[in-house]
TrEMBL record:
All residue ranges annotated as the Peptidase S8/S53 domain in the record: 173-421
One matching Pfam family: Peptidase_S8
UniProt-recorded name of the protein: Subtilase family protein
Organism: Actinopolyspora righensis
Record GO terms (molecular function): serine-type endopeptidase activity
Active site (catalytic residues): D182, H214, S386
Family membership: Belongs to the peptidase S8 family.
Keywords (A to Z) from UniProt: Hydrolase, Protease, Serine protease
Keyword Lipid biosynthesis recorded: no
Domain of life assignment: Bacteria
Length: 437
């Protein structure tokens, strides 16, 4: 995993020694609100501050979907719907760009680009689910359960759909666009044959076809069908069964990607009016990223809610509670923790960390989750906060259909609708996400 330091002051770095060198050779500039308002100003800022001659912009591409291979030859890239730019620079040139940015009010932060990773926990787990952990101090909301609860997959549906009340909801996500940004989707999977799907790859040299499996699993949980076509009697595993699916491949088949990949896909999703953007990805970096916090807030302002996996860096059985990493630790991005089938916190699920925005916001099923997998395996049961996140994203689509809420209003609706648990708020936030009745 990559690491970072906390930016001083307003997030600028004055010289190369004050910040880690970008592992990709690119640096991310966050533009002020005034600059964000005009794309021409964003381009001009990259040219004057970043010394860029050839600037690519997301607005130059159909559906605002950046072609990363075509844009690779540019000196810089503007993500016009986000108010973010990237510039390529070696460490010496990066130092001069940072010095110029520190004096320019059009730039509010400059950060080195980082790698992000698919966030799965133990795969194909066979161990018994852990018991629910009871808080020893009053660290968050709690409610008294009449008796211990444990859910199991049945021939009709997964335990996650049962626990979140999805099976009792009349909402289907009809008319709501959900973007899943991950390793892509297996387009040959029969369970998605009759769905409206738009797929784009933002990874250089790779098609949107999923060669990893993580993305197909997440798409299945968030938006899988109500009645899987084959084999007969297959259990239901998908939440928003009639939502319109946008698949953005931002992580390569090896499970990693860059900020450029992710920002390009978020820009595409926002530009195409996605109400929910699901990201089961991140990095073990404690400090809040100014780029992702700015993007999260601007997405909310446009009516798009970004939901992200909190992280799997905990080992609670050995006393390590972990911490919420980037980008889920951004205050304007909803951070999701993982629960087991007894509604206890998963051993690997990260706890809130004491940075502004580093808290868990909500929880969902994330242990032994059954969903789609690339053919010929077809289905697989895996664990992780990555598996909890699409539960919340699908439930968000249900609430969006039911209430027409968007952005901050949709965030508030999800939090109000959550069921409180006998667990600390630092572990599960508002509790388990629940579908509208």
């Amino acid at each position: 995993m990559t690491s970072s330091t906390t930016p001083p002051g307003n997030g600028h770095y004055a010289d190369a020694s004050a910040q880690p060198v970008s592992p990709t050779g690119r640096y991310v500039l966050v533009f002020s609100d005034d600059t964000f308002a005009r794309e021409t100003d964003q381009v001009e800022t990259l040219r004057s501050v970043g010394g860029a001659v050839n600037v690519a912009s997301t607005s130059d591409y159909e559906w605002r979907a950046l072609n990363v291979d075509q844009a690779a030859s540019a000196d810089a890239t503007v993500f016009a719907d986000l108010g973010i730019g990237t510039v390529t620079a070696d460490p010496d040139r990066a130092a001069s760009i940072m010095a110029a940015a520190a004096e320019d009010p059009r730039v509010t932060a400059i950060e080195p680009e980082q790698y992000m990773y698919a966030l799965s926990g133990p795969e194909d787990t066979q161990a018994e689910p852990s018991t629910a952990r009871t808080p020893t101090t009053d660290t968050g909301w709690s409610t008294v359960r009449a008796a211990p609860v444990e859910f199991h997959d049945t021939s009709e549906a997964t335990w996650g759909l049962q626990a979140t009340g999805v099976l009792d909801s009349a909402a289907t996500g009809q008319g709501i666009r959900v973007a899943v940004l991950d390793t892509g989707l297996d387009s040959s999977h029969p369970d998605f044959a009759d769905r409206e799907i738009s797929a784009r790859s933002f990874v250089s040299g790779e098609a949107a076809q999923d060669g990893n499996g993580h993305g197909t699993h997440c798409v299945g949980t968030s938006c899988g069908p109500e009645n899987p076509p084959e084999p007969p009697g297959s259990r239901r595993y998908g939440v928003a069964t009639r939502a319109e699916i946008l698949v953005g491949k931002v992580l390569g088949d090896g499970g990693s990607g860059t900020d450029t990949n992710i920002l390009a896909a978020i820009n595409w999703a926002i530009g195409n009016d996605c109400r929910v953007i699901s990201m089961s990805l991140g990095a073990d970096i404690r400090a809040v990223s100014r780029r992702y916090e700015t993007v999260g807030q601007r997405a909310l302002n446009r009516g798009s809610l970004i939901v992200a996996a909190a992280g799997n860096n905990a080992d609670r059985d050995s006393g390590n509670p972990g911490f919420v990493g980037v980008p889920a630790n951004s205050p304007s991005i909803m951070a999701v923790a993982a629960l087991d089938s007894r509604l206890g916190i998963a051993d690997f699920s990260a706890r809130s960390n004491p940075v502004d925005g580093g808290q868990i916001d909500i929880a969902a099923p994330g242990v032994e989750v059954y969903s789609t997998w690339p053919m010929d395996r077809r289905y697989r049961t895996i664990s992780g906060t990555s598996m909890a996140t699409p539960h919340v994203s699908g439930i968000a689509a249900l609430w969006a259909q039911r209430t027409d809420a968007a952005g901050e209003a949709l965030w508030s609706t999800l939090i109000r609708g959550a069921q409180r648990l006998e667990l600390p708020g630092v572990d599960v936030g508002a509790g388990i996400a629940k579908a509208p009745s």
